[in-house]
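Structure tokens please, single chain.
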Amino acid sequence: MQEVSSWKKLELAICKKSDVVLYPSALEIKELRNIDPEINGMAIPAYIYSSIASGRKPFHETNDLMFVGGFGHLPNVDAVNWFVSNIFPKILVVNPDVRFYIVGSKPPEFIQKLETDNITVTGYVTEERLEELYNAIRLVVAPLTYGAGVKGKIVEAIHYGVPVVTTSIGAEGLPDADTVLEIEDDPTRFTESVLMLYNNERKVNEFPAKAENYIERYFSPQSVKKQISSIFQFSG
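Here you go.
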């Protein structure tokens, strides 16, 4: 805690000397202002997509669930364990043919041992293979129970037009997250949201258009350029 206090003091000292401080999350700016309202902070996206993925398959050509995340990051290990323990068995009762793809580098041994007829642990995959999975998967789940900051895996899934069920931790820092994500922390409600979306052709087919509007509004080069341009004040 002494080290935490030392780094916090240093970070705030730098912030106070800066004309503007940029963070990737509005939530971080809120916390910064709670500490010192005089610090000038602004949130700008850390993820930018110049085009919308267009290879998404229609409802009847998609199947299964997917989690994406490197397992060198402990919140991802916890998220998969929580989902497999609390959510996935209930999903199989309703949809026994559903497969859960666990995608990410360096899965520890106990994650690898989760593999069954309904669970596939891929380990690391190439960008090309990941795109194939996004195009064919029906839903992405991001059942994070702790962690901080904007989650790149969720923005990426939205970019590919894949509906996402996540927790409040997973949605943290994303603007208007509830307009584009299903957000549930309770295991029963999380399960219900997954089943509702998985079996809802209309919602799944409508999602890519909603995702495109969201990315264009918050994570496109044009939107980010507009935000960054507002930082600079020019006089004639």
